[in-house]
Amino acid sequence: MCKVQNCENKVWARGYCNTHLGHLYRYGEIRRTPYTPNEIVVNGGHAEVILYDKNCQEVGRALIDASDVKQISESKWYMHHTGYAVSDGVGLHTAIMGKNGIDHKNRNPLDCRRENLRDATHAENCRNRKCKNSSGVQGVSFTKSRGTWMARISVDGKSRYLGDFKSLEEAAQVRREAALKYHGEFAVENNDDR
């Protein structure tokens, strides 16, 4: 076995595999390449999968359970532009759970510990997205013509009007109550919750 940590290739010369020996001759050191397996750091019951960009610079760390290390270590994981850890078009969360339709409870796409993953329909998964509007509150927007804050919620694919309010706080409260009523555990009000 090659003497480079986590390299299981057959030794070629000087204790290194052909790839790492080539690095020594070319660069004078062992370098990470886009094909180098991810480093995985185990800390007690969980582990971090280090994700790199095409220039081999660290861009993030995905959190998994230590018991899932062996299952995912065979694949090369990278950071997708959507923020998810992906290998061959499959999300890390999907690989861990072994099926599609998985939602991250805390909305962090890199937190793939089993306690943070749950089954979800497409609609439920969409409800658990971060708010991207200017008010910062999901389903609440300012209506310039009336000078009020309008609250809406989507239920079964249809938008429901919840009312116009003088303050953002009132609209947010009504929207929050409706979200809990209609969306339950998938209810999200703004970017700061959870």
Reported for the largest beta sheet, the result is: 3 strands, antiparallel
Order of helices and strands: HEEEHEEEHEEHEEEH
Strand content is 25-35%
Strand order of the largest sheet: 1-2-3
Please indicate the count of domains: 3
What is the CA–CA distance across the termini?
A: 45 Å
Low-confidence stretches: 190-194
Query: What's the total count of β strands?
Result: 11
What is the overall silhouette?
elongated
> What share of residues is helical?
10-25%
Average of the residue pLDDT scores: 87
Radius of gyration: 23 Å
Structural class: alpha+beta
Total DSSP helices? 5
Description of the molecule:
The protein is α+β, with helices and mostly antiparallel strands and 194 residues long. The protein folds into three domains: 1-31, no CATH class; 40-119, no CATH class; 126-186, GCC-box Binding Domain (2-Layer Sandwich), CATH 3.30.730.10. Helix content is 22%, strand content 27%. The chain contains five helices and eleven strands. The strands form four sheets. The chain has a three-stranded antiparallel β-sheet with strand order 1-2-3, with no helix packed on it. A three-stranded antiparallel β-sheet has the order 4-5-6. The protein is elongated and about 75 Å long. The two termini are 45 Å apart. The model is unreliable at 190-194 (pLDDT under 50).
